[in-house]
Amino acid sequence: PEPNITWYYDSHLINILSSSHHSITSENQLNSLKIINFDEFLQGVYYCNATNNFGSKIFEFKLELIGRYSF
To answer: What are 45-62's pLDDT values in tens digits?
Structure first.
């Protein structure tokens, strides 16, 4: 069965209706989180929680701004 996907940023549920920095898509069983205009305020730990009738799995990753670019 297809999982229910929820995304978290630093343990807080990402609400795409009120977030101007995140976009969540789900297409052909591929779920993705897009971070828009990434800056130092958006670095931290992100979680993807996938749940279905057989259980759940949490994927964790850390985003860190290492350097800046300029034009």
So the answer is: 999 999 999 999 999 999
Q: What is the 3-state secondary structure (H, E, C) of 14-68?
A: CCCCCCCCEEEEEECCEEEEEECCCCHHHCEEEEEEEEECCEEEEEEEEECCCCC
With a cut of 70, which residues of the chain have pLDDT below it? 68-71
Distance in angstroms (rounded) separating the CA atoms of residues 12 and 29:
24
Question: Cα–Cα distance between 59 and 26 in angstroms, integer?
Answer: 16
Phi, psi of 33 (to 5 degrees): -115, 125
- Which residue's entry shows tokens 């279905």? 52
- The pTM of the full predicted model, rounded to 2 decimals, is 0.78
Q: What amino acid occupies position 24?
A: I
